[in-house]
């Protein structure tokens, strides 16, 4: 007992003489926990993004198939050929079925990747039946749900096939997508994170055994930098994983491009390309939002000739404007230079002009500039649908989109104006809007002139 008391006494004396050991021990616990928590959070984000992307991928696949399936619902052989091509190109697909609309309890199987099912009556399980019910109630959407079979994770999705002359449901597309590959990647990442965590703990223990002053403020700073680097690595990985499935979509485009397509078929092909573009835009917006929120978006402010930059942007939008029957006007005038990040300024201007073209059904889009005191103002005006005073209050919020009959067919993420406003503010500028419902809209950005 005396020996134990002596050990405790020496330990207490050592702590009194070296109070930094308490902080060292705290760091020995806090750093691994922080690393573990950060790793878990980013792996969770990566998994959520992967799930969202897989659902989008299923939706695009079914969108493409339904576009031509509605015209060939009575031609099982034609649909069978297309299903085989899709199944061959999509390794993760475990099942693809085309059903005719039934009595609500059973459905005739027209085409299936399992040939034995063709010509039979399918009695769906409760999950499949609920997805079919949702698809029937909203024919324009794909509905998906996650399920497990023998320990493996899958996504099951259903989409209604409507008649060519009405919204009447004539059939359904059912797909099962295996998440084994994505889960394997996630599992490897988790194992790597645990391995790194174990190595860090071992290193801390070894250093504690050699000396009490194991971690000082400098080493803590280095570890925090390492965590930050790993955060960047995870974001890069997520971006890569999000963009990879776009290759499959492009593959479908190439596949249809090899066919002798009618005008209608060419329209389908255009829809595929449009969907891929939307996905790419969504990914870019998500990454921009993450960088802005975390303060990781860099701005290299340099003098810029506004007139030249706007002339280039106006020229790039001439063809899209002409395609819609719009006039795009810009009168180049000499202006003082402004100090902005050239790439970010171009992104801001492209977003504002692009929105003006997109939301203007007829008339014109005008880009004008002026000098207001010591600031250079840029105004993008259109004769489009206009924005009400109530809608203007939320215009620069994340994910806000104006929803009405006029905008129903116009796609977008609701992130563009939020990203634009944040970039303008980061570069020392201001952004505002002037609009009258039914008359048009003016977006105005201004920056200090270079003296």
From TrEMBL:
Sequence intervals crossing the membrane: 20-38, 192-209
InterPro entries in the record: HATPase_C_sf, HATPase_dom, His_kinase_dom, HisK_dim/P_dom, HisK_dim/P_sf, Sig_transdc_His_kin-like_C
Keyword match Membrane: yes
Subcellular location: Cell membrane; Membrane raft
Keyword Transferase (UniProt): yes
Record GO cellular component, one term: membrane raft
GO molecular function: ATP binding; histidine phosphotransfer kinase activity; phosphorelay sensor kinase activity
Bilayer topology: Multi-pass membrane protein
Domain (Histidine kinase) ranges: 237-451
Pfam families tied to this protein: HATPase_c, HisKA
Catalytic activity: ATP + protein L-histidine = ADP + protein N-phospho-L-histidine
EC number(s) from the headed UniProt entry: 2.7.13.3
Enzyme class: transferase
Sorted UniProt keywords: ATP-binding, Cell membrane, Kinase, Membrane, Nucleotide-binding, Phosphoprotein, Transferase, Transmembrane, Transmembrane helix, Two-component regulatory system
Name the record gives this protein: histidine kinase
Species this chain originates from: Candidatus Lloydbacteria bacterium RIFCSPHIGHO2_02_FULL_50_13
């Amino acid at each position: 007992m005396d020996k134990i008391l002596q050990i405790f006494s020496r330990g207490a004396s050592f702590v009194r003489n070296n109070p930094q050991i308490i902080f060292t021990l705290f760091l020995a616990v806090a750093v691994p926990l922080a690393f573990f928590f950060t790793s878990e959070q980013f792996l969770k984000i990566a998994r959520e993004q992967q799930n969202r992307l897989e659902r989008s991928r299923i939706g695009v696949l079914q969108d493409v198939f339904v576009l031509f399936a509605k015209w060939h619902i009575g031609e099982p052989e034609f649909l069978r050929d297309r299903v085989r091509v899709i199944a061959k190109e999509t390794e993760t697909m475990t099942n693809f079925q085309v059903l005719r609309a039934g009595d609500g309890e059973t459905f005739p199987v027209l085409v299936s990747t399992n040939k034995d099912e063709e010509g039979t009556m399918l009695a769906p399980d409760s999950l499949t039946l609920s997805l079919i019910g949702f698809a029937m109630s909203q024919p324009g959407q794909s509905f998906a749900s996650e399920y497990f079979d023998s320990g493996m994770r899958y996504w099951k999705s259903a989409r209604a096939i409507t008649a060519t002359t009405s919204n009447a449901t004539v059939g359904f597309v059912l797909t099962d997508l295996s998440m084994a590959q994505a889960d394997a990647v996630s599992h490897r990442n988790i194992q790597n994170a645990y391995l790194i965590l174990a190595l860090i703990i071992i290193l801390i223990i070894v250093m504690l055994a050699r000396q009490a002053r194991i971690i000082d403020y400098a080493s803590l700073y280095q570890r925090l930098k390492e965590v930050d680097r790993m955060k960047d690595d995870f974001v890069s990985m997520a971006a890569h994983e999000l963009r990879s499935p776009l290759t499959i979509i492009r593959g479908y485009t190439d596949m249809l491009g090899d066919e002798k397509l009618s005008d209608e078929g060419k329209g389908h092909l255009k829809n595929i390309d449009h969907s891929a573009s939307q996905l790419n835009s969504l990914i870019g917006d998500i990454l921009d939002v993450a960088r802005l929120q975390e303060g990781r978006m860099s701005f290299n402010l340099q003098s810029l000739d506004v007139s030249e930059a706007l002339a280039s942007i106006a020229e790039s939008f001439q063809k899209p404007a002409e395609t819609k029957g719009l006039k795009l006007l810009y009168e180049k005038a000499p202006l003082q230079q402004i100090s902005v990040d050239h790439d970010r300024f171009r992104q801001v201007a492209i977003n504002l002009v692009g929105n003006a073209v997109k939301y203007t059904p007829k008339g014109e889009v005008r880009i004008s500039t002026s000098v207001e005191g010591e600031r250079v103002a840029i105004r993008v005006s259109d004769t489009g649908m206009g924005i009400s005073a109530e809608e203007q209050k939320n215009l620069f919020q994340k994910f806000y989109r104006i929803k009405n009959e006029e905008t129903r067919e116009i796609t977008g993420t609701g992130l563009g104006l939020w990203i634009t406003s944040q970039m303008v503010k980061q570069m020392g500028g201001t952004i505002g809007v002037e609009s009258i419902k039914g008359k048009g809209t003016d977006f105005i950005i201004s920056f200090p002139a270079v003296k």
